[in-house]
Amino acid sequence: MLVALALWGAGAASQDASNVLTEVARALGAADLKTVQYSGAGFAYAFQQSYRPDAPYPKFHAAYSRAIDFERGLSREETVRTQFENPPRGGGGQPLYREARAAAVSGEASPWGGGAVALTPHGFIKAAMSASPMAASRQLGGRSMTVVSFTARNRYRVEAYVNAERLIERIDTWTANPILGDMPIETTFAEYRAFGGVQFPTRIVQRQGGFPTLEITVTDVRPNAAVTLAPPAAGGLSQARAEGRRIADGVWYLAGTPEPNSQLIEFRDFTVLIESSVTEGRALANRAEARRLVPNKPVRYHVNSHHHGDHAAGLRAFVAEGVTIVTHEMNRRFYEQVVLGNPHTIAPDALAKAPRAANFIWVDDTHVVSDGTRTLEIYHVPNGHAANLLMGFVPQEKLLIITDIFNDFGEPRPNDPPPGLVSPYYAALGERVRQLKLDVERIAPSHGTGAVPAEMLWKALQGKVQAPQVSRQ
Ligand SMILES: [Zn+2]
Fold first, then answer.
1. What domain count does the chain have?
2. Which residue range is the domain that position 252 belongs to?
3. How far is the CA of 227 from the centre of ligand 1 (A)?
4. Cα(306) to centroid of ligand 1, in Å?
5. Residue of 30, 69, 127, 345 with fewest CB within 10 Å of its CB?
6. What digits encode the pLDDT tens for the residues 331-363?
7. Cα-to-centroid distance, 95 and ligand 1 (Å)
8. Residue 93 C-alpha to ligand 1 middle, in angstroms?
9. Among candidate residues 196, 223, 250, the one where a domain is terminated
10. 216 CA distance to ligand 1 centroid (A)?
């Protein structure tokens, strides 16, 4: 009888969901909406690029536009960012001396994330209708709402909050993030207005992992505009790869994809690997390359430069291998409670499959790894990019290892200061090197291709230290 009741309950909820979706489609004018183009302005935030692990993502002025082909499940988002933080704080390409334009097309084979078409009000209806939706009542902000939910791609739960006017006010989902685990993505939609028979929200706010990533006021909506999008190349993230280049005696630069790169240092009985990179796959490729280059010595220490998404995504892979993590003490709560504490059930990684206790060395100002034959000095660098940033120095080789406040991209970037000006981020590195009286001859930046002459840094430090102008939009 319990089974029968449960089935009857499920059937009713599913019938309810179809009815609600039909009403929502009518209220939104979704039936004849094949494509849409919309644009506006507001703020974009650089995801997982905060100044401190507990701080919101850094904020930018943003012009925003999006084109969606609902029938093909394709979407193109374009954001043009300019500097907002004053003084510059955090990553995301800061300090921006010029506008930074980025565009990305996503499709149904793209990684599940905030840009999915099913996470827009009109896209939700189509996706939910073809995926056994369920309906339930839930309170939101003291109001009773109907929550319609379904599972996308047989893996990702999606929930839409439908109000009394049958408009979607909020869509929640969860995706797999290598650092945050089962990570919530919440998008809210408000101030719906009519655009040629279609109701469209003019306030859109998205939060990922608990902090805002986008806050947009929509000013222009074109239903059924001509949208011609080519699907993105299949495969998503490129295959992870790491290839060691010897840059000094017992020191290798591990170049590869996805970036940033890593550095390997050989000691008498073990090795030290610096930077864990942007994916678990790249961390595993780095570790495999370390073993190939130095076959009989284990990676004993992994130096994590800071908490940003492109530098900490491999941490859990090293914990799973029993490697001791060397990082700044500012990361303690975030790494112990969030990175190691959050559930990773959507896409279980090596550590989720085989849990293991982590070993950390928490660095305040200085930490030295030495075995009598080789020394690696690790220093905290006070700077605007990340409050917890560590750099390495190999005194025997006069080699500095640094990321993000000195890069060798090999191409112009919006954070290149105009002639005569010096980025405050670079200036902070110069100041720390001078203060420590480090005799630096070469620098191996993690965003780069290997070791470069220290002259590159001294040249970049000639001029007046000045952050970008911040416009008041
Ligand atoms: Zn960074």
1. 2
2. 241-465
3. 35
4. 7
5. 345
6. 999 999 999 999 999 999 999 999 999 999 999
7. 12
8. 9
9. 223
10. 25
